Amino acid sequence: MDSNIEQPEKPVISKGIDGFFKDIYNIFSFIARIFAEAFKRPIEVREVIRQCFQVGYKSLALITMTGFITGLVFTKQSRPSLSEFGATSWLPSLIAIAVIRALAPLVTALICAGKVGSGIGAELASMRVTEQIDAMEVSAINPFKFLVVTRVMATTISIPILVAYTGLVGLLGSFLDIHLNEQTSFISFFQEAFKNIYFLDFITTGIKAVVFGFTIGVVSCYQGYHATQGTQGVGKAANISVVISMFLIFLEEVFIVQIANSIR
Amino acid sequence: MKSFTPEINMNEKVIDIHNLYKSFGSNHVLRGIDIDVHKGENVVVLGRSGTGKSVLIKIIAGLLKPDSGSVNVLGQEVDKLDNVALRELRLKVGFCFQNGALYDSMTVGENLAFPLKRNTPNITHAQVKRMVTVVLEAVGLAKTVDQMPSELSGGQRKRIGIARTLILRPDIMLYDEPTAGLDPITCTEINNLINEVQRRFHTSSIIITHDLTCAKDTGDKIVVMKEGKFVKRGTFDEVFTTQDDLIKEFYDYNFIQ
Predict the structure, then answer these.
(1) Interface pTM (ipTM) of the complex?
(2) Domain count, chain B
């Protein structure tokens, strides 16, 4: 039985459309498999903790610096406009709304997409092209559960914690500037800051953080796990992980804000 | 030639492949492969690069699905197994990758302990340590236990790759180009190690290579592959006394040039 009957070549457009729908199908299958494997025993608690350390703790220095500077600079930039109307007392409230509702989740997610997403994409791609993933599979180890599920869980857990931390550090940056200029005390700054922050803001930011974390984990693991083309594929996986993650983060931001505003 | 006579049980087939086909798009890699491996036997699959040798052993290990044909390993049809059964089977089939495929974020000791710990959840730390030492001694690299894979030479990486496979005590070993890219002395050491594994651990093996010295030193049976088909099979002497152009070309290239 010879199955060597040549098929006619498909036109380029048809190939592209087929490829697009195939990619969509593959990504949804990938996500479905993550959920299916995540609840199967054994639960990889140690590996999840190790990955949380990699994602969370090792990003702290960068997050601290960027969060602090974001709060500080945003306060400095907003002061001239508010002082024109004699409304500098609104600064803590304005900064808190900006930081908690938008800047903390967005800045953290974008930094993590760059730092963590590219790291995961490159690491898994390198393991794929050097046959380390195949080596796990032939050793009767489930590489998907050990490598992918643990990393997606780690980003989904760690990024919300980092977002909360960025928010706090951003407000401290803002407080420093306001304290130096208006001699506002720590307590009155925070009382003023949280005056216009509602429970829905915390819920929305929390949901955003979880969605962003999950997105970064899924995109970078998908790109790394399915890498091809040798060492060139490693660079490509890292690069595409960052680009697609950032693009999706902005789309998700718009989508979630739209829903939150319709509830508000 | 081999320095010992292996105990081959001709009544027991551990691998039995019949009429195997595999294509990647329009590239027809395997075109009707038939091969059997008996218990205790080393079979060498010889052929030029790109003839589908590695695809064959990846199908045996369940890493790739065949398009058609039957692949029976230790009495089980590999492509019909569910994930749990395939994982059980993989514990009995060791796969040595061309470049070792060592986990580069782990030390040599951790590389060896990893599959053992994962597949035997109740094993103690002392037992793991003892088994790691045993297999490292078997491949002659006991001192590398704390080294990282990046600190090892090509030959050492391959030996550690073999050790990592041996730690699960497989019945079948699949070697993918075990001597590729090594100097002649290291090649001889690897060939001796393959024979030592067969003698000491009573394994049956398929050795994929294009190195005739490796084929001569390790193979109890040789099959020559060309364009996805087996064109000749037998002992080394039987295969290489033929007048077939491909085989003569292979022989001349390896032993005369």
Answers:
(1) 0.87
(2) 1
